[in-house]
Design goal:
heterotrimer; A alpha/beta (497); B alpha/beta (289); C alpha/beta (319); B: 289 residues; alpha/beta; 5-stranded parallel β-sheet; globular; C: 319 residues; 8-stranded parallel β-sheet; 14 helices; 10% strand
Chain lengths: 497, 289, 319
């Protein structure tokens, strides 16, 4: 890597640090109560079944590179078996039972996630590398909340689409990414079931374990077999699911590149599709912003979940008149970020999800340096094993730099400046993406005007990276189409007549 | 000798003007029995490009108008269509519609404009929401136009089909580049004259006549078109169009006229047709002292 | 002394070059987003400390306490007992430091001064028409001067909230500057009474006015109104201190007061301090906690950390 700059701009001379005995405990969340099986099979038709492929692959803990479990690799035969089970469950059971009963199953799932919340959080952190404080306080509670929210919709759908009769689509294939594994499973499964569909979910190959624990929850909830099927594997498994003839709908969250591939693969078919793809979100700080909170928002915007967030505020636009104090505070604040063991409750930034992702981040950061942007990195110590990347930002970035254009999906921020609101809007919208945007100003009318002008599906005003089951989420332009969350999140799983 | 009538040159409608096609080519529009009715412009990909540019340029201004204003303009379109009803009907008849059917189609067209005019300041109330998030935030969702919408109008009904797809797109603040019915473009081109005299800003609707097979691939692949209405594309020809559309993740919309039909008023016109060309934007705003 | 001798026209009391500008304060007083500030404070409160750090932090917290009694029924005897506790919070344990100061009403200062002599514990007094501040500036200055003369090392003044809330920032600023002058060698802590200031924007503004007018410390509360110190209010004041330091190079102290009654909360304040202002502020010279019942809770917590058993109040003296 390139130059690491001393991060902690000392606030003042004075007390020698040696006199200060102020350390946060390595207070790792206990893992003894967590049962991770050594091998997981495919969850098809309500049972864990051995894969036709007879192949299993290892899934690791990216913070230690140790193997967490073996999971099955589903081939075309397995996909076909899952689709047949889902179809059978749809035709024979799920479409026939009263909607109010459907609701009760989904409520049960929500409750079971709450009951097992600590174990789910610990495994989410072990398998994905995210800090336990995030999996504990955000991923898992939100996953439960999504099921709880959509459970209530199951028997109220008529009220969501006035003048129309809404019917389920049938069998939905759902492919989710590795950045919020359980939460994305909830975002996909909950509305699909509420709307009366059955599903085949494929989690990402690096983070399958909590989805498989969710399969166990489905069993415990006594969900009719085949209503939810969870199959593991890599890209080929996903492609087989997309290609299967008896699927009515594909819901995908992931990269724009793969999203386009899916859209092409579905061309000429009757399958419905929703895509939640990449982003390169602007986070815009005006000179009258509440600066200290804006700095927190910048930090939360880009370093939350190691920056593995499609809506991450990866392009910071600062009004030139406040650039100096914003950068100063940002440097100070980055110096206090704690990078390390994701299971430690004090950890702010965990492990990068995989070696491949780490290499991608490194490559883009190097391109930033080569293109002449100035790099600032936290001088925090990084563990020797596992995949890590120190919180980083670039100044002197121009719109044309790769780091200002491409999604890095890591803890790397590009800082750009603007002089007028018009310039901020123009630069912010100057991207093929349109997932999210942040605005920081104390002026209410400006917030609403900016919110109107920014071409993005989610606008955070004086906050960032907030999620809620009632709040629709999804992109404009190449960030995809369809919404997840809220009443709008039902539409992708229904046909109206 | 009887007076020699003056024939109309059917040109394109781009950016509020009626240019000849850049290609300098035309194609013959024939009536029953192969009689030549007119030479229609054979629009080219460059005409499409110009139309998309005009639509893009007009989009912000159009969506920036108040909903009330857009509703008034759509209603004005209805008024002008009513005034020119016999002309529009005559054109449909020339292209082979029986008189009663032609008049009925024009009436439906007028009613459709009135219907969508009335939606302009209401659909946001139907599709928007205030979301009760678990925290001190005011959170709301509003529909916003997708942007530039490409429309492949159906061959039949040439006028009602076009209007049924254009009206819900523009009432929601989108601007449109529409490829008109290939075999029966005449009334659609006259519709351009209606727009031109109805306070519709230039560029909001652009109409290109020509050969569908030539134009569709360019429109589907155009990177500055945000959504594609493939109503006029036969099911068998969809695959290539949809593949091209994926290049910039276009939203694809298709009204299945074979299944629903244009006479089903409840389903061939509805706020859901507006919804199809909308993006949902959600805004989070903290509530604090 | 005659009245005129003690109270010269106060505008001439303060040397011109001493005053900083009110405008400097107001320029820096941008808005604070309430929701985001509260979220940040809440997230910091979740930090968990290492056992040794916890012990160290608890002892540090004791050394930062302004052990306080501010009641109409305070007597010489009560105050004397409090001073003994302040000097030796836990007689059996030599590792336990004395508290930072004993804070009382002005008339108690002579007794406190006697009781604490040579102990290292500072003598602190509230003044300026505490707690409401609704009296004449001349009287506030006189009260300050007499209290310092009686032996106070530190003066905790209250700002004129009436003037502040009616927008007369100049009056607030001038009065603080005058009281600072009247303090002479004594340190000045300026109480904003944040519970009466309505919102964080006002807290930030009042903090900056106080610092630019000459405060050595800024302090949240009198303990006499419904809302006392909170973590987010303290965070906002820390941030103002940080910005003031950046602009002037002067390190100002901070004193949350009221409602900090247990060890866990005290440690949360220290986490907030460490994360916002850094290690350099972790000294009684720059951070105090105004409290009365906190001390015993910390002592119980320390003994629990040492013995491993949860403690009973019966084994800790009440003074």
């Amino acid at each position: 890597m390139t130059t690491a700059i001393e991060t902690k701009e000392r606030l003042a001379p004075g007390a020698a640090s040696s006199e200060i005995l102020w350390e946060y405990s390595p207070s790792p969340e206990s893992t003894d109560h967590v049962k991770v099986q050594s091998r997981y099979n495919l969850f098809i038709g309500g049972k864990f079944v051995e894969p036709h492929s007879r192949r299993w692959f290892e899934t690791i803990n990216p913070a230690t590179e140790e193997t967490l479990a073996e999971v099955a690799e589903a081939d075309e035969e397995d996909v076909d078996r899952a689709v047949r089970e889902a179809r059978r469950a749809y035709e024979k059971v799920w479409r026939k039972i009263p909607a109010s009963e459907r609701a009760k199953y989904i409520f049960r799932i929500a409750r079971l996630i709450q009951e097992k919340s600590r174990a789910l959080a610990v495994v989410e952190t072990m398998n994905g590398g995210k800090p336990i404080k995030e999996s504990r306080d955000i991923d898992v509670p939100l996953a439960a909340a999504h099921f709880f929210y959509y459970a209530g919709w199951a028997d109220k759908i008529d009220y969501a689409f006035p003048g129309r009769v809404a019917s389920p689509l049938g069998v939905a294939g759902q492919i989710i990414p590795w950045n919020f594994p359980l939460l994305m499973a909830a975002w996909k499964i909950a509305p699909a079931l509420a709307a009366g569909n059955t599903v085949i979910l494929k989690p990402a190959e690096t983070t399958p374990v909590t989805s498989l624990m969710l399969a166990e929850i489905m069993q415990e909830a006594e969900l009719p077999p085949g209503v939810v099927n969870i199959i593991t594997g890599a890209g080929a498994t996903g492609a087989a699911l997309v290609a299967h003839k008896d699927i009515d709908k594909i819901a995908f969250t992931g990269s724009t590149e793969v999203g386009k591939r899916i859209q092409r693969a579905l061309a000429g078919t009757k399958k419905r599709v929703t895509l939640e793809l990449g982003g390169k979100a602007p986070n815009i700080v005006f000179e009258d912003a509440p600066i200290d909170q804006a700095v927190e928002g910048i930090i939360n915007g880009i370093y939350f979940n190691q920056g593995h967030v499609c809506c991450a505020g990866s392009r910071l636009f600062v009004q030139e008149s406040v650039l100096e104090p914003v950068l100063r505070k940002l440097r100070q604040r980055i110096g206090t970020l704690r990078v390390g063991n994701p299971l430690d409750k004090n950890t702010d930034i965990g492990a990068i999800n995989s070696r491949a992702q780490l290499e991608k981040i490194q490559e883009l950061v190097e391109s930033g340096v080569e293109e002449g942007a100035e790099i600032f990195q936290s001088s925090c110590k990084l563990p020797s094993r596992g995949f890590w990347f120190a919180p980083t930002f670039f100044t002197g970035v121009s719109q044309s730099n790769r780091i200002a254009q491409e999604e890095i999906f890591g803890p790397v921020l590009s800082v750009l400046t603007f002089r007028t609101p018009e310039e901020a809007i123009e630069k912010a919208n100057n991207t093929p993406y349109g997932l999210s945007a942040g605005v920081w100003t104390e002026k209410g009318s400006r917030i609403l005007k900016m919110a109107q002008k920014l071409r993005a599906g989610v606008i955070w005003a004086n906050t960032y990276n907030k999620f809620d089951p009632t709040s629709p989420f999804g992109g404009y332009k190449e960030s995809g189409f369809g919404r997840e969350g809220g009443m709008h999140g039902l539409a992708p799983y229904l046909t109206l007549s | 000798m009887p007076r020699l009538n003056v024939r109309k040159t059917y040109k394109l409608y781009i950016n509020g003007e009626f240019p000849r096609t850049e290609s300098g080519r035309f194609y013959a529009v024939r009536g029953k029995g192969g009689a030549l009715l007119a030479n229609a412009s054979r629009g080219s990909r460059k005409d499409l490009r110009n139309a998309v540019q005009a639509a893009r340029k007009a989009q912000q201004g159009w969506s920036g108008k108040t909903a009330y204003n857009r509703g008034q303009i759509l209603y004005r379109i209805a008024e002008v269509c009513e005034a020119r009803a016999s002309e529009l009907a005559a054109e449909l008849r020339r292209q082979g519609s029986p008189a009663a059917a032609a008049r009925k189609e024009v009436d439906a067209v007028i009613d459709r404009w009135v219907y969508y005019a009335g939606w302009s300041d209401k659909y946001a109330q139907v599709f928007g929401s205030v979301n009760p998030v678990a925290g001190p935030y005011y959170n709301f969702t509003v529909p916003e136009p997708t942007g530039v919408v490409g429309i492949i109008a159906p061959e039949e009904p040439a006028l009602l089909g076009l209007v049924s797809r254009v009206a819900p797109a523009i009432v929601g603040g989108n601007t449109v580049v529409a490829v008109t019915s290939e075999s029966r473009p005449l009334a659609a081109i006259t519709l351009g004259e209606v727009f031109e005299t109805s306070d519709v800003p230039g560029g909001v609707v652009n109409l290109i006549s020509g050969l569908r097979s030539e134009l569709t691939p360019w429109l589907a692949a155009h990177m500055d078109v945000n959504a594609l209405d493939a109503t006029g594309i036969a099911a068998g020809a969809l695959e290539a169009v949809q593949k091209a559309a994926a290049e910039n993740v276009k939203r694809l919309v298709r009204f299945d006229a074979d299944e629903i039909g244009w006479d089903d008023e409840r389903r061939s016109q509805s706020p859901y047709a507006i919804f199809d060309f909308q993006e949902m934007k959600t805004v989070w705003h903290p509530m604090g002292m | 002394m005659t009245e005129t001798a003690i109270v010269p026209p106060h505008r001439t009391l303060v040397p011109r070059d001493y005053r900083r500008s009110l405008n400097d304060a107001l320029e820096m007083a941008h808005g604070v987003d309430a929701v985001a500030a509260e979220e940040r404070a809440a997230s910091l409160a979740k930090r968990s400390l290492k056992k040794e750090s916890k012990l160290w932090g608890l002892k540090l917290a004791i050394s930062m306490i302004d052990l306080t009694t501010l009641e109409g029924k305070d007597t010489r005897g009560k105050v004397w007992a409090l001073c003994q506790k302040a000097i030796r919070p836990e007689p059996g344990d030599r590792e336990i430091p004395h508290v930072a100061a004993v804070c009382v009403y002005p008339t108690m200062i002579p007794f406190v001064s006697d009781a604490l002599r040579g102990s290292g514990v500072k003598v602190a007094s509230v003044a300026t028409g505490f707690p409401s501040g609704q009296t004449f500036t001349e009287i506030k200055i006189l009260e300050t001067q007499k209290t310092v003369a009686a032996g106070a090392d530190e003066i905790d003044m209250v700002i004129d909230r009436g003037a502040f809330l009616s927008g007369d920032y100049q009056k607030v600023f001038d009065e603080i500057a005058d009281v600072k002058e009247a303090c002479g060698p004594a340190h000045l802590k300026v109480i904003l009474e944040t519970g009466e200031l309505a919102n964080y924007d006002q807290v930030r503004k009042a903090s900056l006015i106080a610092m630019y007018a000459g405060a050595d410390f800024i302090k949240t509360s009198t303990g006499k109104v419904g809302v006392n110190a909170t973590l987010p209010v303290t965070l906002v004041m820390f941030e103002a201190i940080r910005d003031f330091y950046q602009a002037t190079g002067r390190m100002i102290g901070m004193k949350p007061a009221g409602g900090i009654s247990n060890s866990k909360l005290a440690l949360a304040y220290l986490v907030l301090l460490y994360e916002t202002l850094g290690a350099d502020w972790m000294t009684p010279d720059l951070f105090r906690i105004g409290a009365s019942s906190l001390l015993n809770d910390i002592l119980m917590q320390i003994r629990k950390e040492k013995t491993g058993a949860y403690q009973s109040g019966d084994y800790f003296t009440i003074d």
